[in-house]
Write a structure and sequence with these properties.
Layout lengths: L4 E7 L3 H10 L3 E7 L25 H10 L3 H7 L7 H4 L3 E2 L2 E2 L13
InterPro entries: FAD/NAD-bd_sf
């Protein structure tokens, strides 16, 4: 079990850095994030995050963890235009055995 400390430093304000800072906030009086980029006012790619131009998905377990740490985040993201999809039906997975079968899943039921 981690003892309560006074100050934590997170280097990098990526999604991972921000998530780490949120978790550390449960154990430290102060959490400082050091980020070299300036956060834009509107959603847009940042120079220090070259992969930010590519589409990303947040899988189910990640969604559940984010919702625990940030209650209401899912609804806010959807309200701001995030697209919900059923990854088993809406995405194509290519494996060493070929294309994976696509079929509807009940994974979305975890949020209802």
């Amino acid at each position: 079990m981690m003892q309560h400390k006074s100050h934590a430093l997170v280097i990098g304000g990526s999604l991972t850095g921000l998530l780490m800072a949120r978790i550390l906030a449960n154990h430290f009086d102060l959490v400082t994030i050091v980020e070299r980029d300036v956060y834009p006012d509107q959603p847009m790619p940042r120079k220090g995050v070259p992969h930010s131009r590519f589409p990303h998905t947040l899988m189910l377990r990640g969604q559940q963890i984010f919702e625990q740490l940030f209650p209401g985040l899912r609804a806010e993201l959807i309200g701001r235009g995030a697209i919900e999809l059923d990854s088993m039906q809406d995405l194509i997975f290519f494996t060493s055995a070929g294309l994976a079968a696509r079929a509807p899943s009940d994974l979305g039921d975890f949020f209802q």
